[in-house]
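Try this one yourself first.
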């Protein structure tokens, strides 16, 4: 349920740290980490939770599988050369922020 809430608010999804035995550390983000991710969620409210989760990992600069990358790339949701990928340029272009994106 918390994933859906964060998705609907266009915020990053929570991160769970399970490294310490008998302890779970949850980080819930209350701010935008990557404006392209936020704009993409605004523009595509019908994205499924799995796709949103993969995009969330991309914005947090975590490595996703090559298959997942291919899926996102085929839908024009990400750009770059694996494993250095980022949320797609078309989002920056759509919001008229091309100069900032290029920098």
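Now uncover the answer:
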């Amino acid at each position: 349920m918390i994933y859906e809430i964060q998705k609907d608010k266009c915020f990053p999804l929570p991160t769970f740290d399970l490294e310490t035995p008998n302890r779970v550390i949850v980080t819930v983000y209350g701010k935008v980490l990557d404006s392209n991710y936020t704009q993409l969620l605004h523009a595509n409210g019908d994205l499924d939770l799995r796709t949103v989760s993969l995009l969330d990992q991309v914005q947090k600069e975590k490595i996703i599988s090559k298959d997942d990358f291919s899926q996102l790339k085929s839908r024009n949701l990400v750009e770059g050369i694996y494993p250095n990928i980022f949320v797609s340029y078309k989002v920056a272009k759509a919001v008229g922020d091309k100069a900032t994106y290029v920098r």
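Discussion: The chain has a mean pLDDT of 86. Residues 49-59 form the longest helix (11 residues).
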